[in-house]
Design goal:
Shape: globular
CATH superfamily of the largest domain: Metalloenzyme, LuxS/M16 peptidase-like
Number of domains: 2
Largest sheet: 6 strands, mixed
Strand content: 15-25%
CATH topology of the largest domain: Cytochrome Bc1 Complex, Chain A, domain 1
Radius of gyration: 25 Å
Order of helices and strands: EEEHHEEHHHHHEHEEHHEEHHHHHEHE
Number of strands: 12
Structural class: alpha+beta
CATH class of the largest domain: Alpha Beta
Number of helices: 16
Length: 460
């Protein structure tokens, strides 16, 4: 029997049409109606009615995240967030889970640098149950010893798992070096702090942070305004603030800039993970949007200079990038690139080049337009989910921004000019401002980066 081989026709190379249609006018999102109130106990309430799917995203944001952790208990905010929904004086962890599920959702909490957020997303008809549970968690969390022990074991397992990840090690080392001596240096619990955690300590931190005069309640979704406000009042008005002073807010960090590579040894690693960071403007600062657009041009979008250089052109890495993270007291630019050992030095050279190019050259009209569209489009996508809207509003509240900020930023981005980006680039992006972290084989890092005349310091 003879088998014939049939060859498939060669794929034709795709060629873009010579005349592509021009971009349309950027559309500005219309802000929804936002109802802002404050209860007698000091609780701030923001309601965002969005008609359609009969669901509501609720979130309770409280001041005091990792920035409020005592120096000897770094990361206690993370454990507090994990434990706060695991039982109250009247409900067990299982009862909380079952009741919120009957309302069509679940209940979770997470810690950020600036605060703790307790969230749920339920059917509109389940709103009274969700509000009652949120209020119970806010006022009466009991931290049962058995549940706290589970939280501690999970935290220990997560830490051990994370410490095998170059991204975790790099971020931890970067924040420790960049924010040394400042509360923002904390990114996770330590083995020592986890071991110290007790129900009594968690209760103490809970009472310090969970108070109505330092909290925001958010509701985003399809609801009747008057009915929901009545339900909120019924659930939360009896919550009282303690007599002790509220959680303090940290001063703005200055950042630590040195000509030193902080390295995290990973023996026999086949890659070097670069993390470069610098202090950037806060969300509320006048040049924040210009810095945001500058970052999109530098490394914040797929068509950015950094990606086109070390991924598309040179093939040094698969997924490099840069992001601009904002906290209440500062912003931070983080550049990340996982590169092959043999191109560690070459990759650092190109990252340095692209940072300094943003700082020293003028952006063109086409590149500026693409970056502005990307940033505005990303904002629009964040407003499509009710839960993400609630999360965005909480972040804006922590930063001291107005409730409608998420919807009016498009106008600010549209108004950014080339000279604004040039000024932000010159001010924030020079390599000389960067704290440099490298995770990988120690010998590779030192040999490959030796020609740059940098000193080396092992991460603590």
């Amino acid at each position: 029997m003879v088998c014939a081989t049939i060859s498939a026709p060669a794929a034709e190379k795709f060629v873009f049409p010579k005349e592509l249609p021009a971009y349309g006018q950027m559309s500005i999102t219309t802000p929804p109606r936002i109802i802002e109130t404050k209860l007698e106990n000091g609780l701030t309430v923001w309601l965002v009615p969005i008609k359609g799917l009969p669901k509501v995203a609720f979130a309770l944001a409280v001041n005091g995240g990792n920035d409020a952790d005592p120096p000897d208990l770094p990361g206690i905010a993370d454990l507090l967030a994990e434990a706060v929904t695991e039982g109250t004086h009247s409900r067990s962890a299982r009862q909380i889970a079952e009741q919120i599920q009957l309302a069509g959702g679940d209940l979770s909490a997470s810690a950020t640098i600036d605060g703790i957020l307790v969230q749920t997303n339920v059917l509109t008809e389940g709103s009274p149950v969700a509000l009652d549970l949120l209020a119970d968690v806010a006022r009466n969390a009991s931290f049962p010893p058995s549940e706290v022990e589970i939280v501690k074991k999970n935290a220990q397992s997560n830490l051990e798992s994370n410490e095998s990840s170059p991204s975790f090690l790099g971020r931890r080392a970067l924040y420790s070096a960049l924010f040394a001596g400042h509360p923002y240096a904390v990114t996770s619990p330590t083995r020592e702090s986890i071991a110290k955690m007790t129900p009594a300590l968690l209760k103490q931190e809970y009472e310090r942070r969970f108070r109505p005069d330092q909290a925001l309640l958010l509701a985003v979704g399809d609801f009747d305004d008057a009915r929901l406000q009545s339900q909120i009042r019924s659930s939360f008005v009896s919550w009282r603030a303690p007599s002790q002073p509220p959680v303090g807010r940290p001063a703005a960090p200055t950042g630590n800039i040195t000509k030193t590579v902080v390295y995290v040894p990973r023996e026999h690693s086949v890659q070097t993970a670069f993390y470069l960071g610098a202090i950037m403007p806060k969300h509320a600062d006048s040049d924040y949007q210009a810095a945001r657009v500058a970052n999109a041009i530098y490394g914040g979008m797929f068509g950015s200079r950094l990606v086109l250089n070390i991924r598309e052109d040179k093939g040094y890495t698969y997924s490099p990038g840069a992001r601009l993270q904002t906290m209440r007291a500062a912003g931070v630019l983080i550049t990340r690139a996982d590169v092959r050992n043999e191109v560690t030095g070459a990759s650092f050279n190109e990252i340095s080049y692209e940072l300094n190019r943003v700082a020293t050259t003028t952006v063109g009209d086409e590149e500026l337009g693409q970056a502005k569209r990307y940033v505005a489009g990303s904002l629009a996508l964040q407003l499509q989910s009710r839960s993400s809207v609630a999360h965005s509003l909480a972040n804006n509240w922590w930063s001291g921004l107005p409730a409608n900020t998420a919807w009016i930023e498009g106008e600010s981005i549209e108004s950014v000019k080339a000279k604004d980006v040039d000024e932000a680039g010159q001010k924030y992006f020079p390599l000389s401002r960067m704290t440099i972290v490298a995770v990988g084989d120690e010998n590779v890092i030192k040999q490959q980066l030796a020609p740059f005349g940098l000193e080396f310091k092992k991460s603590q």
